[in-house]
Every structure is written in structure tokens, then in C-alpha cells.
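Q: Here's a chain of 617 amino acids. Please give me its 3D structure as C-alpha cells.
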Amino acid sequence: MINKNHYLSVYKCLLFCLALGSASLISCKKNKDIPKEDPKPLTTETGLKIYKPKDMANMDWNSEESQFCYARSKQSDHYIIFWSKEYGKVNPSDASVPDKYRVDIDAMLSKAEGFYQMNVNQLKFADLSLSTSNLHKYKMMIFLYHQDDWLATGSGYDDVIGSLWVSPAACQPVGATIAHEVGHTFQYMVSVDLGLTHGFRYGYGGKGGNTFWEQCAQWQAYQSYPSEAFGGWLNGYTDNYYKHILHEDYRYSSYFIHYYWTQKHGIDFIGKLWRQSQQPEDAIQAYQRITNISQDQFNDEIYDASAKLVTWDLDALRDMGANYIGKHISKMNRQSDGSFQPDYNFCPQTTGYNVIPLNVPAAGTEVSATFKGMANASGYNKVDASIAGWRYGYVALLKDGKRVYSNVYKNPNDVAKFTIPANCDKLWMVVTGAPKIYNQHPWDEDNTNDEQWPYNVTFQNTNVYGYLNNNPGAQPTNVDFSYDVSVKQDNANYTSTPVSIELSKLTNAFALQPDELTAKMGTAIKFYAIESNGTLNATTTANGYGHWFSAAGNVVTWGPTAVVYSEYNEKNYTFTLGQYPGHNKVGDKYTVKQALVYTTSNNTTVKATFTFNITLI
């Protein structure tokens, strides 16, 4: 993790500082005043020296009374790890060390060496063919603090060598967190070896802050831990992908463009981008210069990347991403004329994109979208409308997993057409913000000045997923849904599984648009449980529109006879099925039923029945 203020100080003062206690860890003066190494440094056969940071100049590393010392250290070929004096004479790996402070030192060094090799030999963040590289002179350093507070920071000391500072929790076990911080140390080494005008040691647009450090460190870590690309940071991406690629709001999650760039230019391209960057350009400007492409060509690439990321259709992501297709949020607002516009909090920014799920009509159907660019439309951020631009088109996912991509449309006002291929399973429209001139996105924590590129779109022969195609004569009918649901059994914790209903099936049955389904809940649409004898029960006993059920599938209150619950979220059309801790065992099976009953304007009623076959696993 790198704090924004570090970059701000670089930009303003050419000082790049991290504070641990009162320690000043990094100084970026061009004329290095490197202190002499501590006497009697431990070495290995690599012959690399141990650098003594300026802020530790008065610390005796040969004295066990010091915060850090050689007696409390261990080395590998390219690293030395020090642990703080609170550990005493006991190695942090020792079984006598309390669990929360215990760290496997050998694993730390072994994994760090692996990350070193990854960043040097594969990602090429460092060029060891340069005899002047400080990696030929010094070992990287790791400082382990005996503390409860989380600490995981990577950067470097005095424009000399990379270092990281960690707490025990960050190393239990040694994994992607440490790989991320090691990534920062190699980012730091770019400007150490090549000078401060390389390596993004500055903020964008004069505002300070450089999100590319975190984005790249995530990607660097995931080269060692590939599955983490779809781990805990994924939601940050799928919730914010409409924003600028370098936006501060999702700097830990915006690492997917890296996969596109490296598939296109090679796995070492991100390292090349860092090493060949030139102040004051940002990563986008550096990319365009290094690859020798125009803004128009870059906009084409952003659309291509966005279209592929709808289904994670890149070699490094395709297999792992199969279970995450459909995760991108979509917030399209229906207008009074039946057209749609992106919500303010979904409007594509420069380099950002929209993924709009659509209804899938029969194979061979030609769908179309009448597109109108609306720069500076009411309700959106003000921009320079003279540079406005968009890219848009369709992505189809077939039942056999193949993808079909439409032509790309560029005209601010056009009709985008696409013929539905055979065996089409899912369909999306993709829209990207593609201005004619690129402007840097500063890290300023102010979304009201972000470039937004709103638009209006009207669909023919399809619609935003769940919304009815034009069919004025449709009559409401009954409909049944059935889902087999697995819920993890747990004796101590409430566990649950979400179930997203087939929205288009419900809207077609009720002849209502999704927003009407939501608006009519509690009035024209009533929510019920269906007892085991078939009677409707309007009394809710769980949260919101929800019920607790007995083993027989009857409504009960929370308590000794309750085994499972089902709750309906009318805003996202999702049920949550969960279990009562300790009231079930693995293998238990239950069937529960709920219903939506719609009373139409002519006073007829239709019912949607939801049957959930629950298995505890």
C-alpha cells in the first residue's frame, strides 16, 4: 500500500516519504549522500551488501538493544529480514511465539525470492544487464514489526534500495499481500536505477497522487497468485469499471487493463511501461507514446478491451472468469419515451465503459440501438463537448462458450445493428467514453469534475435485460419458478446463498417493466409465503419481504423450530436463502415456497410462484 500523500510530497518537494514512527524512509534527492554500511554486515555468497538507511544511522545494528540488529535477522540471496527487539532472542518462527506474532521467516525469504525472480526475469521491472543497477550492490530489506496494528507497506530507502515494512498479520501466511508490497519495491527501483523522471514518482495533473502504483502492484502480485484476480478486490472493479481506468476510487481493483496490454504486447510490457515512462505523463499517455498509437486508435483499443472484459475473454482470465460473467453492475434509467440513459453513477468516463445486459431474442433476429451522444446533458458533469466521443457495439456469449463481437460504432448519432447468432445465451451492449483529446485524471477525491460522456439509447427487437420489448397487447399470466439451492451448514454462523430470479420471465408474465415491479411492491403486488398445504401467508417473519420456515416448509418465527429462511430484495430481484446456525446438519433437504401476487388495473390477479429446494452442504 502506498499513501497518496507520498506522491503529493514528491510532486511538490521532490521528497518521497513514508512515515513509520518518526522514521523518514525515502529521500529522492538527485545527489545521493549514501552513508557507509554498518560494520561487520552479514553476507551470503551473492556478495550483496546491506544498506544502512539514513534514518537508522545512529542505530547500532550490532547491538541487541537496538530496535533492529543483525542478531535478529536472516538473509537469503537477495533479501535480509530484520525483526524488532520485542521478539527478544526468539525467532519469530518459533512455536513459543504467540500465534498473532508468529511469522515463518524461512517462508518469507523463500517467497520473497520467488517474487524477486518474477519481477526481474518475467515482468522485467528491473534490468540487471545494467551494471549500474543498485540490485547489483544491495539486498532488498524487510522489517518485521512486533505489533497488532496492520502494516504492509513497500517502497524503498533513500533512493538506494527497495524495502518493505510489515506486521505479523500481513505475513500469515506469506502470500499475495507480500507479493503486492514486493511489487512496490520494484516500482521504486525503476526511479532508483533510471532517475526520478521515470517510474511514475509524481502525481497527475498537478494534484498529487498516483493510482498506477496500487493498480500495478495488484497485477504484479497476481502473476504469482493468478486466482486472486477474481478474489476480494473484484467487486471494486465490477462496481466502478465505468470510471476512468486511473480513478482513485478503485485503484486497488483497476488491474484488468494490464491483462489486455500484456496479451497484446507481452508479459514484460508493464515493466517496460514503468521503465520508459517520462514525467509528467500518466500511464495512458506513456502507453500511447510507447506503442506509437493515436488517441483515435487508443479509443479503439479501449473498446476492444472493454468488450473482451465483459466475459473476461483474455487468455490469462478466460477460464478463471467463467463463473464471474455477469458481475458487472448496470444502472440504466428508463425515460418516459421508453429510451434509456445511464445513471449518474454509471455514466462512462474517459476510458471507462458500460456493460448493458440485453434480452436475447430468437437466433437470426436483427436487433438495433438508436444511439445519441449527449455531452453536457442535464444531471451529468460538465465537460468540453467539442472533444466528446463514444464507442459502442454488442457482445454475444454462445451456449458453447464462444464469443461473437459486433462491428464497432463511433458516430455520436447512429443506429447500431447486430444479428443474433445461433445458440446465443447472453447478449450485452458495450459503450465506452472515447473523447477526441485525452486529459489526465487527477487524484483529487472529487468525482464532480470527472469527465462523463452520457448518451441516450432506444432498442428495437431487444431491450435492457428484464424490460419488455414493445408488446402493447401482452396480458398478465401466472408463472412458476423453481431453483435448487445449496447453503453451507454452519453451527455457529448464519450462512446464505443468493438467487437472482429470471427477471425477463417475471416481467413478461406480469407484463410489467422491472421498475414497475419494484414500485408496485406492497400495493398492487403482494408478497406471500406458501404453506405446505398451499395456503398463502402474508405475515413476514424474517427481514423485509422474508420468512423463516420449519423443516416441513411452514412459516414460523425465528426460534427453536426455524431451520431456513428466504428473503426477497425487490430492488435487485434477488432472493437470499439462509440457514439457522446449529439447527441443521449436512445433507438436510427442505422445500419452501413464496409468491408474488399481482392485482391488475382491471382487478384480475396473477401469481408468480417461487419454489426453492434447499440442500445443506
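Q: Can you summarize the key feature?
A: The radius of gyration is 29 Å.
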